[in-house]
Write a structure and sequence with these properties.
Elements: H1 32-47, H2 75-94, H3 98-106, H4 137-141, H5 148-153, H6 176-189, H7 197-201, H8 206-220, H9 224-231, H10 234-241, H11 245-269, E1 278-280, E2 293-296, H12 301-319, H13 323-326, E3 331-332, H14 342-355, H15 359-379, H16 383-395, H17 400-441, H18 448-488, H19 493-515, H20 524-535, E4 542-543, H21 544-564, H22 568-593, H23 604-619, H24 628-641, H25 647-667, H26 669-672, E5 675-676
Parallel strand pairs: 2-3
Antiparallel strand pairs: 1-2, 4-5
Helix pairs in contact: 2-3, 2-6, 11-12, 12-18, 15-17, 15-19, 15-21, 16-25, 17-18, 18-19, 20-21, 21-22, 21-25, 22-23, 22-24, 22-25, 23-24
Length: 680
């Protein structure tokens, strides 16, 4: 039964238009027979040239409730669909005989409809519900659905102007008018509107849609914080929930929101905002991916270090563990990444750094960053693997002086490794008791093995923070000297020497800090190659020395994954993105150095193709590759099809490619420092 509207006579100045609400039928506005009778009396009065009277005593002056518009697909709409289906069934039965049809007509459908207030259409002009929809009205009026008594009772209702809907009370939605019209037609005429036919035809799909809505509602009500807390770390979260895609997506959303909340708390604490302290998360969004964040404060680099320290502090206070443990989330400064918006600004910042260094300073910088990139390989190798790697690299270098210089760098790498391991050990031992106390206070659930990992991660984070403090001090001094030089527009020898020293110190402190930053690149070459160019598409110009830095760091990460996973298949697909990046770095070196006789390693093409296929397995959404076990089985089969029968053989092929490119670049070192156009 629809809303019936009664309006005043259009041109009468003293006329009154009021909704009458005397004993209304709940949910549908008015008692239709009562209103239609009143309407008929008023129409008769108009014919007799008498002004229609209005009984204002029947008008309710109580405040009216604000109309509520229900959501598409809710319980009321589903009920309307059900009634529509009943109407269709009754129309079919009516063909069996007028007697049966009269019985159906006599039974009202209104009692089966749950009351709900339907809003009026938002158009300014509207007509009252039509008695007939056919061109031939007389035929429709003689339809067997209407008895003569019914026709006498219901007087014709002339079209009247409909008052404008109160916009403050009616929410403007495109689909709501059609829903209201559908329910009015069902209740008043017993006929199903054409718009509802698609709903009846789609009834087969309703159970599936219902399941999806139910699943969504269940996920919205899940206590994700408890789920993460009970698991204890993100690895266990993935192990438990990765098969349930909807739940895993909910957990990932929760992770992002929780990290975002703490980042906002960091900004509040440091009295800054999102414009001056950006958070960048350029990594993958796969269900298995980590969620790392880089703080970018533009030229205000010291603010980035403070943000990292404050984030780690707030996270520990809230969760009792490191963000890398709970969410597989680590926070960083921009480190070696050039500052500025877009390619041009970043190129300008790189040029500014190069401008402040002498040629001798640049050579020292290349040496330092080369050692820091090789340190990534050393940290993830056993002592025996490292000795074998050094021997193979040195044996392939032809130039005697180059071999001697490379040997010196490899010795420095070993020394850096031992120093960093000693620092980490000392920090972890100091943290153990304090960390244990914090875990107990917050009732965090970790077994002994996981506690050791979390304590080690906390030690790494705190060493990272301590080096960032040194970076901040260095930046302050460097900026002061650089400003003096820029103001004078002349650089003295003393100032040039000082700029070299401070810039090299800055690069060393940044690299050492990044040694302790979980899963971070140590060098600018790797950052620019992967983060800026591959992930963010900036197209930054990169030299061959920088591509070599990236190739060595990708090798180090691949070695870590292969050594860590005993299962061959898992070692293959877990390391695939690093092997793919290694191959990309080598491809770019080849393009830039082709004229100088650089040759691709023997297995470059084969390994590149294999890495591409392994990445497809890693990122696949196929239900047959949903679990780690399924991915590992597929990866192992793929490797055997490519004649790789063990993870040791796979590792050896990767290291063979790495030593080959190192030998060629080091023998052609004079050209390697020249910036080249960025690759893909």
């Amino acid at each position: 039964m629809g809303t019936v509207l009664v309006s005043r006579k259009p041109s009468t100045a003293n006329s009154l238009s009021i909704f009458t609400k005397r004993k209304p039928t709940r949910g549908f506005g008015f008692n239709s027979s009562h209103v239609m009778a009143k309407t008929a009396n008023r129409q008769q009065a108009v014919k007799n040239n008498k002004a229609p009277s209005y009984d204002l005593s029947q008008v309710s002056m109580r405040p009216q409730a604000k109309l509520t518009v229900n959501q598409p697909g809710d319980a009321y709409e589903q009920e309307a669909d059900k009634v529509a289906q009943q109407v269709v069934q009754r129309q079919q039965k009516s063909q069996q005989g007028e007697e049966e049809e009269e019985k159906l007509q006599a039974k009202s459908l209104a009692h089966t409809i749950t009351p709900v207030i339907q809003r009026a259409k938002s158009s300014k002009k509207a007509k009252a519900p039509k008695v007939s929809t056919s061109k031939n009205d007389s035929k429709k009026e003689e339809s067997p659905k209407e008895s003569p008594k019914q026709k006498e009772k219901a007087p014709e209702v002339e079209p009247v102007k409909k008052p404008e809907a109160d916009k403050s009370k009616v929410e403007d939605k495109k689909d709501a008018p059609d829903k209201g019209k559908g329910k009015e037609n069902i209740a008043e005429t017993g006929k199903k509107p054409e718009a509802d036919k698609s709903k009846v035809e789609d009834k087969k799909d309703a159970p599936e849609k219902g399941k999806d809505k139910k699943k969504k509602a269940e996920n919205d009500n899940k206590d994700y914080k408890k789920m993460v807390g009970d698991a204890g770390n993100w690895e266990k979260v993935k192990k438990k929930y990765l098969k349930d895609k909807e739940t895993m997506q909910g957990l990932i959303k929760f992770r992002k929101e929780e990290v975002g909340k703490i980042i906002n708390e960091v900004r509040t604490s440091l009295k800054t905002d999102a414009q001056n302290l950006k958070d960048i998360a350029p990594g993958s969004t796969d269900l298995t991916s980590d969620y790392d964040v880089t703080f970018d404060a533009g030229e205000n680099k010291s603010l980035e270090g403070k943000a990292v320290q404050e984030f780690n502090k707030l996270f520990r206070e809230k969760w009792g563990k490191e963000s890398g443990t709970i969410f597989d989330t680590n926070v960083y400064t921009t480190g070696h990444m050039p500052t500025g918006e877009g390619k041009d600004e970043k190129e300008k910042d790189k040029g500014r750094t190069q401008w402040q260094m002498t040629e001798e300073g640049e050579k020292k910088s290349d040496k330092l960053l080369d050692e820091m990139a090789l340190l990534k390989i050393r940290r993830n190798m056993s002592q025996s693997q490292w000795e074998k790697y050094k021997k193979n690299m040195l044996n392939g270098i032809k130039d005697k002086n180059t071999k001697q210089e490379t040997e010196g760098r490899l010795k420095k790498v070993e020394l850096l490794h031992q120093e960093s391991q000693e620092e980490l050990k000392n920090k972890a031992s100091k943290l153990t008791k304090k960390h244990e106390s914090l875990l107990q206070k917050l009732k965090s659930k970790l077994n002994n093995k996981d506690k050791k990992k979390d304590t080690e991660m906390a030690a790494n984070n705190q060493l990272y923070e301590s080096y960032l403090t040194k970076v901040e001090e260095n930046l302050t001094e460097l900026e002061a000297v650089r400003k003096d030089v820029e103001d004078q527009q002349v650089r003295t020898k003393e100032q040039a020497k000082k700029l070299d020293e401070l810039t090299l110190d800055l690069q060393e402190m940044r690299s050492k800090a990044l040694v302790f930053a979980n899963e971070a690149y140590h060098t600018g070459g790797a950052v620019e190659h992967v983060v800026l160019n591959q992930q963010m598409g900036q197209g930054i110009s990169i030299s061959n020395n920088q591509y070599l830095q990236s190739a060595n760091e990708q090798t180090g990460f691949a070695v870590e994954q292969i050594n860590h996973h005993e299962n061959m298949g898992m070692a293959l697909w877990k390391s695939s993105k690093y092997v793919d990046r290694l191959c990309d770095a080598i491809d770019n070196i080849h393009k830039n150095h082709k004229k100088e006789g650089f040759k691709l390693p023997g297995k470059q093409e084969e390994m590149s193709n294999l890495a591409t296929e392994l990445l497809k397995i890693k990122k696949s959404k196929d239900k047959n590759l949903a679990t780690d076990k399924q991915k590992s089985k597929a990866a192992k089969k793929l490797a055997k099809d490519n004649k790789i029968n063990s993870k040791e053989q796979y590792l050896q092929d990767i290291l063979s490619m790495n030593t080959d490119v190192n030998q060629q670049i080091r023998d052609k070192k004079d050209d390697a420092k020249k910036p080249k156009k960025a690759g893909k």
